[in-house]
């Protein structure tokens, strides 16, 4: 009888705990978000840092623009070297320089979402606030270009489980960058530092982090004048992030062994 009594007592406590947890969730609280590392997200494909492959392809990405001062100069250089790139744009700057975004698209480049106000995601950020940052930029881009972007880059590279869930729900893939290709050009480290970082570390499938809006700085433009001819000479092809992903998928399909 004593054993049965203890079992009944334990069972009763389990029911009480279960009810309490249910009440907490219904009251607006959630279980602590599970933390996953880069390996987990790369396996699921929910976040992409780079796309290693056999072909000598590399993706230049530019954040925070468009900019009246430097975006046009960057586009001129990309055109000169037949290079394509991905621009992660900030919604309120798109509204300020819409023609620059139109030019990016007309010249074959890709547009990604970088929030409306360059909003830094924090663990305390409400899901609705974060989603509105994405949706407001999406609305501006759809009205301007007629196309919805499908790539998203969080400012500062900040992410968590809730962000991954929200971006997937909104139809986006989160794109970060190769850790060895963070140029830190926003810090204005010097033209040589930026160009050396990219050229020395260049690998097939890299995603390079650059910025086409760094107030008061032209270092990124000058660095591109070194990067583009040097990597072109080394046989690299400059493609958009989506093209990089497609190239990897095609490579995987070619390498599949047919079943008979």
Commentary on this structure:
It is built from 10 helices and 8 strands. It is α/β, with parallel strands linked by helices and 260 residues long. The strands form 2 sheets. Strands 2, 3, 4, 7 and 8 form a 5-stranded parallel sheet that branches.
* Most strands sheet: 5 strands, parallel
Mass-distribution shape: globular
Number of helices: 10
Strand percentage, roughly? 5-15%
- If you average the pLDDT, what whole number results? 89
- Reading the helices and strands in chain order gives HHEEHEHHEHEHEHEHEH
Using only C-alpha atoms, the radius of gyration works out to: 23 Å
Label the structural class.
Answer: alpha/beta
Low-confidence stretches are 19-33
Cα separation of the termini: 64 Å
Total strands: 8
Estimate percent helicity.
Answer: 40-55%
Give a brief rundown of this model:
With 260 residues, the protein is an alpha/beta fold. 48% of the residues lie in helices and 12% in strands.
List key phrases describing it.
8 strands, single chain, alpha/beta, three-stranded parallel β-sheet, 12% strand, five-stranded parallel β-sheet, 260 residues
Set out the fold topology:
Blueprint: H1 2-26, H2 38-44, E1 47-48, E2 57-63, H3 71-80, E3 85-89, H4 91-96, H5 98-106, E4 110-113, H6 127-145, E5 151-152, H7 161-169, E6 173-175, H8 191-201, E7 207-211, H9 219-233, E8 237-238, H10 241-255
Parallel strand pairs: 1-6, 2-3, 2-7, 2-8, 3-4, 5-6
């Amino acid at each position: 009888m004593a054993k049965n009594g203890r079992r009944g007592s334990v069972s009763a406590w389990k029911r009480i705990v279960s009810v309490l947890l249910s009440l907490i969730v219904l009251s607006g609280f959630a279980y602590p978000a599970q933390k996953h590392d880069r390996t987990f997200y790369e396996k699921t494909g929910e976040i992409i840092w780079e796309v290693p492959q056999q072909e000598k392809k590399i993706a230049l990405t530019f954040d925070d623009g468009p900019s009246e001062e430097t975006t046009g100069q960057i586009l001129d250089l990309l055109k000169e070297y037949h290079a394509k790139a991905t621009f992660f744009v900030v919604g309120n700057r798109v509204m300020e320089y819409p023609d620059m975004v139109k030019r990016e698209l007309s010249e074959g480049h890709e547009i990604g979402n970088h929030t409306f106000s360059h909003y830094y995601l924090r663990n305390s950020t409400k899901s609705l606030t974060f989603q509105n940052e994405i949706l407001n930029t999406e609305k501006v881009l759809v009205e301007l270009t007629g196309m919805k972007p499908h790539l998203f880059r969080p400012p500062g590279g900040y992410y968590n489980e809730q962000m991954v869930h929200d971006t997937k729900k909104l139809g986006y893939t989160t794109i970060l960058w190769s850790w060895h290709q963070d140029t830190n050009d926003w810090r204005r480290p010097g033209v040589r530092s930026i160009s050396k970082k990219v050229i020395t570390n260049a690998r097939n499938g890299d995603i390079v982090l650059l910025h086409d809006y760094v107030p008061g700085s032209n270092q990124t433009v000058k660095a591109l004048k070194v990067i583009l001819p040097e990597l072109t000479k080394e046989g690299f092809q400059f493609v958009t992030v989506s093209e990089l992903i497609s190239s990897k998928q095609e490579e995987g399909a070619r390498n599949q062994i047919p079943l008979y």
